[in-house]
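R.M. (postdoc): so does anyone remember the format we settled on? I'll just put the structure tokens first.
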């Protein structure tokens, strides 16, 4: 499964260098307007870029995930934007929207403060779910 992800940072514009081992990603966040409370955004469907950003200590602190859209095949990548899969609820107990391990991880990070790196494997995700008493009725491992 591939995703188009939009990351945001609280700035009008920002250039941030992310490093993971030998890999360096130069992120350029644009179109922010702090006066109107609009954060600058960076959009990518490159899984390597996403991994490097999400492995950074800035991720979850200064750099936040704004949205993630599921894309399939090369046809979807040619489109400017994919339609959102589903809206996340505001209610922490409504987990019916979660249908993938990625969505489950994002739910655990957002609502339970889990570190994305620590729940990257299916077993670690299951352990976190059990520890917090969370069930995702529409998720199959």
């Amino acid at each position: 499964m591939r995703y188009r992800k939009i990351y945001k940072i609280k700035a009008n514009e920002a250039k941030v260098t992310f490093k993971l081992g030998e890999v360096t990603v130069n992120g350029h966040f644009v179109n922010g307007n702090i006066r109107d409370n609009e954060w600058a955004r960076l959009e990518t469907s490159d899984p390597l870029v996403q991994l490097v950003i999400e492995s950074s200590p800035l991720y979850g602190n200064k750099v936040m995930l704004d949205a993630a859209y599921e894309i399939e095949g090369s046809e979807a990548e040619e489109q400017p934007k994919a339609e959102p899969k589903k809206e996340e609820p505001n209610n922490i107990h409504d987990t019916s929207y979660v249908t993938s391990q990625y969505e489950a991880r994002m739910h655990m990070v957002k609502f339970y403060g889990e570190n994305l790196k620590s729940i990257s494997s299916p077993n670690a995700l299951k352990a976190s779910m059990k520890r917090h008493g969370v069930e995702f009725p529409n998720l199959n491992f």
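R.M.: ...and that's the designed sequence above, right after the tokens. Also worth knowing: The two ends are 14 Å apart (CA to CA). Strands lie at 2-9, 14-20, 23-29, 40-44, 63-71.
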